[in-house]
Amino acid sequence: MLKDEVLQLVDKGLMLPLMEEFYTIQGEGYHKGTAAYFIRVGGCDVGCHWCDVKESWNAGTHPPTSIDAIVENAAKYSDTIVVTGGEPLTWDMNPLTRALKTKNLQTHIETSGAYKLTGEWDWICLSPKKNKLPEGIIYKKAHELKVIVYNKHDFIFAEEQAAKVNKNCILYLQPEWSVSDKIVPKIVDYVMENPKWKVSLQTHKYLNIP
């Protein structure tokens, strides 16, 4: 296939820059501890300095892969499919989620919301970043809000973001892994003082799994 043809298919969401795909245990948020198949899509320009998958940022380093092949692989492993990145909303997610739905699969997304919401999702985990704030409607659609806490100023940011989501959205504060030893006690105190929030931990890292 010619390069221009591939780029056109990527633009349409019929191919995606696939970084990796794997079957594991969801480690974070509301669905932690449950089995899920993860599709990690390359491409992100949000630029979080503490990002633990910076290798996902450059979409050009990840092979454009047919969504038919992605869906075929996913359907072999789990009823729950988690699309993550990178920033998956960099790309049109409508074709991928439509294809997943033809297999009766549950579609979850983990996103900063930095781009327009596309796709049909059973669960939206919105994890906003200061560098590039979420766009519009996703605040009202999000099922969970997950704010990464790196320093004390992130609590202020968390409250600003919580004020924008729908009343049924579950609110999580998650320590940034590299500073977890010093920030976890602050999160615990904050949640005890503000019980509308819950603590989310990256349990997959404690379990030493992907």
UniProtKB/TrEMBL annotation:
Chain ranges passing through the membrane: none
Binding site for [4Fe-4S] cluster: C44, C48, C51
Molecular functions per Gene Ontology: 4 iron, 4 sulfur cluster binding; carbon-nitrogen lyase activity; magnesium ion binding; S-adenosyl-L-methionine binding
Domain of life, source organism: Bacteria
Radical SAM core domain: residues covered: 31-210
Cofactor comment text: Binds 1 [4Fe-4S] cluster. The cluster is coordinated with 3 cysteines and an exchangeable S-adenosyl-L-methionine.
Catalytic function, reaction form: 6-carboxy-5,6,7,8-tetrahydropterin + H(+) = 7-carboxy-7-carbaguanine + NH4(+)
Single Gene Ontology BP annotation: tRNA queuosine(34) biosynthetic process
Binding residue positions for substrate: I25, Q26, G27, R40, T84, P210
Gene3D superfamilies linked to this entry: Aldolase class I
Annotated binding of S-adenosyl-L-methionine, by residue: W50, C51, D52, G86, S127, P128, K129
Keyword vocabulary terms for this entry: 4Fe-4S, Iron, Iron-sulfur, Lyase, Magnesium, Metal-binding, Queuosine biosynthesis, S-adenosyl-L-methionine
Pathway membership: Purine metabolism; 7-cyano-7-deazaguanine biosynthesis
Family assignment from sequence similarity: Belongs to the radical SAM superfamily. 7-carboxy-7-deazaguanine synthase family.
Family matches, as PANTHER family: 7-CARBOXY-7-DEAZAGUANINE SYNTHASE
HAMAP family linked: QueE
Protein name: 7-carboxy-7-deazaguanine synthase
Organism lineage: Bacteria, Pseudomonadati, Bacteroidota, Flavobacteriia, Flavobacteriales
Gene name per UniProt: queE
